[in-house]
Structures are given as structure tokens and as C-alpha cells.
């Protein structure tokens, strides 16, 4: 038997942030970062909470690729305030920090034999990429630079507020990187071994929106409609992979990003074509379930797909053309990582990717040599 999780409640469109003015008499902690505070979004949320006669403690220590030290610092604030309402305002790193802090808080309570009073958790994403506002995933970097994926239903937000005005301050490069993360989420959920008709519907729509809207944002970063649609697509892709899982594109990106400190979306983007080629077995028979599903996506995008192989080849070409049009490097060499350093890290990257929690739901079971070849071709 399969299931499809519809949590959390989702409120969306411009101005939806005002919903927080109805959070009456709460003791809130706002988890965010310096950028969101600088652009006034934290104060905006505080103002809404003031209208509802709620108090708010602000913690803005979140950083990209959050590590254990950052999460521990956030946890200290949660323990001190013991909030009834937790609001995470920011990109995936901010929301993942709040999730991991909740995870650690519960673990400490279990160890100490004390009661864990989980606050109502509201996620307000400021980037259109991770989909973290609708997932039970959190990615944390350990002291050795290795990324660890936490998965626990308790970490899933109770409410997601998708107000695209929160993305207005996001620069072009971040918009592109996070947008290509949306595309990767959708691709991987679509061909996952746990994919269903429900997750497929969300993934298909997300793919269409990314191909439509990212080029529009290249032309006009202030295109409100394109920003809003990308924000919704990010959530759709997040809901798809929350239910279906991901695959080796993310496993390799976690290893690559953790080792070389690359932005997560950029790391994913550099690997997309090689992963599709491998999953579809283009160097072999090209006759498997993933091949058929990639070919179906090609048809949805109005690409030639008279055969499954032709569809996959044209889908890969469309991804490459999209990346070129958005000024994204087509290879890892374009990130200025020297080949000698990269080659010496390959075995570490492969080992980490094989152990990653995203790998089991990939449509093909990779060998170490398979992953090594994908990484080499991606360079």
C-alpha cells in the first residue's frame, strides 16, 4: 500500500504573509538570517504578530549550509523561550536550521526524560528552490564538511506561507540556482521508485513552470507573475519529493556541495544531464521505466519524442540549452575547481553519495564506478 502526505496547510499568493496577524496570543520565536532582517521582512512579521498581541523573540544566526554549531545556537534560543509558535523565515538553510533545532530539542528531552512540547511550526520560504516548507527533510553539515540528511515527520511544518513578495530581494544568481534545484527535485521525484500518480502530477507541473518562468526572470527579474509561479512550483516539487523521494542527483550534490562549498542548487544543476543519461541507460538498451518517464516529460515540453530514447536525448538537450540561456556553467570546471584536486576527491565523494539517504529511491541502483563516471563526465 502506498500513501500520499498532504501536510502542511499551504497559504499562497501575494500578501499571504498577513495571515500571521491572526496568530493570537502566541509566544513566538522567529528563526531567520541577517539578510531577511536587513530587508525588513523580520520586522514585517513582528508587526503582524504585534497586531495579534503575540510576543516574538528573533534569532537571525542562520547561515548557508547550516552546521551543527549553528543549529545548536538556534536550539539554545528555543530552549530559553519555549515558544508556542515557531516561524522560519528564509531560504532552505533557514528552514532546515529550524527543523534540525526541533529535532535536537526533542532528542535532548528524550535523553533527559522530560516532556517535549513541540511548537506550532510555520515556514515562510524566501527562495523558490528547496521546497523545505513542505518536507520532513533537513540537511545539516557536520564538522568534517559532510552533509547529513535528517528525515523525521516531526520536522515537517504545520503551515507554509508562500508569499512571493518575500523573494523580491533575491538576486539573479540565487534565483537561477534555486530554480534549477526545483527542476532537479521534480525530475528525481518523477522517476523515483516510490513515484505515484499524485507525486507525478506535481512534478510534471513544476517542470513546466521552471522551463516557462526561469527564462522570463532572466529577461526581467522583477516579473511578479514569474516569481509567483516559481514560488508555487518550488512547493509543488517539494511535495512531490516529500512523498516520492529523490535520487543520486541529490546524493552527489550533497557530497559535492559539502566538499567544495558550492551552493546546493548549483551543485545539482551541474549534474542533471549526466544523471538523466545514467538513469535512462542511454549507453545501453534505454528500455526501463525511467527512460519512458523522461520521454513523457519531453512530450509535455513539446520536444520530439517519437521513441523513448529520442525523447530522453532531447530532454537532456533542453536542460543544457536552459542552463546556457541562464549563464550556468555546463561543467564543474566552470566553478574553478582544479581537476587534480577534483580527481583526488572522487573516492570521498562517491563514498558519501552511496551512503546518502537519497540514493535508495533512485530508479537504478548505482555502483561506485557508476557514480565515479557521472562525476568525471560532469567535470
TrEMBL record:
The keyword Oxidoreductase applies. GO terms for molecular function: alcohol dehydrogenase (NAD+) activity; metal ion binding. InterPro entries: ADH_Fe/GldA, ADH_Fe_C, ADH_Fe_CS, Alcohol_dehydrogenase_Fe. Residues 175-378 form the Fe-containing alcohol dehydrogenase-like C-terminal domain. Keywords: Oxidoreductase. Residues 9-164 form the Alcohol dehydrogenase iron-type/glycerol dehydrogenase GldA domain. Pfam families: ADH_Fe_C, Fe-ADH. This is Alcohol dehydrogenase, class IV.
